[in-house]
Amino acid sequence: MTIIRARLLCTVLVAISPCLPNAPPALAIECNPNNCPPDGCQVTGNDCQPNDVDDDVDIAGGTSQDCNGNRIPDECELAECVIDVVFLLDTSNSVELEMPAMCDAIEHALDQVETEGICVRSEKLALVPGQDVPCTESFCCEGNAYYEYGAVACEYFDVEAQDCGGCGDGSCEDWAPATAVVAAEKDWTPGPRIIVPISDEGPRCGGGPQIYPPDPIDDADCVAIHHAIPAVWDNRVIVAPVVPLGGAVETLARKLANGGAPGGQVFDISDINLGTKLADFIRGTCPGDCNSNNVPDDCDIDDGLSRDCDKNRIPDACQDSPDCQDPPNGVADACDISCGVSGGPCNVGGCGNSTDCDNNCVPDECDDPVDCNNNGVQDSCDIDDGTSLDCGGGEASDCCTVRDNEMGCDDPFCEGGICVFKPSCCEQAWTRACVNLAANYCSPLCNPLPNGIPDECQAELGPDCDGDGVPDACELHCGATGGGCGQPPGCGEESDCNQNCVPDECESQNDCQPNGVQDICDIAAGTSEDCNANDVPDECDISGPTSEDCNINGVADECEVGECQAGDDDCNNNETPDVCDIYAGTSVDCNENLVPDECDIPPDPWNNWSNDCNSNGTPDECESNEDCQGNCIRDICDIYSGTSFDCNNNFVPDACDILLGISQDANQNGIPDECECPAPDAPEAPPSEGLLAGEGYAKNRYISFVPANPGQMTAIRVTLTEFVNDDPEGPIGSQWWVGNPKEFCENSGKRKPPCPEVPGLPDTFMGAALQCSPYYKDYVDWHGVCEQGECVGGLKDDEPCDTHEDCLGVLHVYGQATVPSDWEGACAPAGSLVPTTYEIQVVEEGCYVEVESNFSVPLEVTMSHWGDIVGIVDEGWTPPDGCISIPNDVTAALDKFRNLGPPDLPYPAVIMARADLDLETPNQLIDISDATCVMDAFRGFPYRYGEPQACQEGGGGGEPPPSGD
Fold this sequence. Notes:
alpha/beta, 9-stranded mixed β-sheet, 4-stranded parallel β-sheet, 17 strands
């Protein structure tokens, strides 16, 4: 018995805390009887020099440098780089279609690296441990990893791959054990060492039961990864798994990649560029020393010994950088350019004396200058510094062109803005109204565009509407500079009243009023409005057939939508002015303030003129003004805010019901008699002695009690009264209700009946999830009677009894809100425990839950310290004692996981409700993860799932049980 438990405990410890080179030895026992040396954390002995001193020791002692932190002494890294790469190939049916592409990617990567003169020693080995696999062209393997290197990695915990638990027929995908074996047993070169496992499933036997869909991952996969990490770390192996991304398989692959030598990566098995990415990865493991100073280039750059002003991770002295001066000045152009543009388009790091006015990363003195005015300065710089003007000459956007048969213009930015102001421009046709909007909104996009040629060097400069040989943009009066046309350079005499870069003389001469001024100029000057941007003054639109004016306010109806002025709004966004809604009766305006009631109430962004204390959509001033208490607050608002109670929901405060004789109050306690009920009996604490000793003890994740009031329909409420977080906004005071009880398996292995049988324990227990609304039930089914020493009925049939109370059934309540006391620390000193405490109360069906006197006296339940599930063994497990230990708490959890009981032990294992710790909502299953929780608590890790979450307003919801058995 002792040996079995020691081995199991060792396995758990290794699964949780894998050995690292700087860690103390694990257990000096043979946890995995594989005829290897005793298990522990021995360093395997990498000695690249060789000098009979482990490389890690050389680096730690300062006799060798490791400037890039990859655990290879710099002097070994800069020798001739020989890369060892081992590809571990999944040869199961699941990858039969993908593997040819994987093989092509491998060959592409190796060819690309070797073409560059890098020496690579590669192996391609199958993963299947149970039999030799024909390495066909489809799978491109050259042997079997377990035939080449054996099935056991000596000096490490068991990584055997001979028994895959049901897949020993040759279909195993055992890539984590294979990685460990190859890492430990291969004769590696001193240079980079790479293992690339390729598989589409879990790392141990391809996975297990679907605990974490959609990836078939189980505890064996996690243990296999933990076993492999010390092997790859000690042997300085870089791991680069190729797996499906986006699930638990990727998570385990990254854990292994991060656990090996620095530089590990994870690649996507479906990546069409996998070959190129693998080549870049393999190539990147070889350091460079282009200046032959016995220091890796990366370290030279990082330490400031070499300049890299173009930021390409190659010392400037080692590359043929552009040096355009004639003769060359020995400084790379990027470093020659003045610091003034550092961080600009060239990402310049230098502080030279050259300028680069056009930001093309070429010093101006080396540019092929275009200097049309022969002033010794290239044209682009003349224009940038204002020496020359660039009125235009390039094509303008056709946002300023009427296109009656087409929607939108050719500039997405402009079009997007116009669509907001006038959606029809993007739904029907780009009319003159759209053009006018664009001229104002999109300028200078509508101007003749600059073309990079100084105006003095070109003859034609864009549109000339009046045909006088002078471009319009240059003919406009200087007064328009900075206006809607941007910055037109001309100083002509033409006016442009609407600033659309078209001389007024070329625009429409309409004068609809008439007042002797062009309509477009009336609109531009503000003497007329043109809310619909159709170049027609609104007064002309309304007097003609173009627009309606439903409220006769002089503004076209289509323009009142969204204008954000009282009486002119469309607050309900129905594309009808509010006043028109009210006049038409499509909106109610009960307080006659010309604002629809639905917009009158906060959070209305315009007005916020009315309150709606009971949130019924009607402004308070339009509802009852009754104030029976005379406190200057409407009764409905008193009730809604909670300052007055209305237990019978008649919209009259209870105090007024009683005062006016609407309700009786015989006991004069201020609560109408119809709202009160006799309080039911309180629930009872479970027994702590007897066959199920421990039901009454404090627990981590369950609240246990004995329901009362058989024969009555009752609901049970749970209130959090004490908690480590004393934040006033925290969960203290939160309330939940006990949901529909269900029968669950007491013993490990299944969740729902039929259940495993274990001597000394019942087969099932009753559990209920917390929810946010009351659930009424007659708990008489949970009780039996004691007849001649035996319980008849209830949950304890056939068990010895003395009184009827011995036959009461215990209910175990669970949920996200059931959390332990004192969330962190391996041991809570006496008096220091910060408790999590709940009160359990009962209310009868038909009684108002708003009335506290209708509830029973509370039963107080305090949870145990996180991870503390037992005390010590004394003819059974004693109550939790405030401390977490391996011999007690971890062992108790493992005993429950293994369903131990008499005759395996002289005492039964703890009950399910004491050992089920894992998941945010306990799942009524005991597995290794529950023991892991206890071990984490022993190591001082805090409770992992956060504080209780209160029910949201409106109730409902609850804790749905996990799927499956």
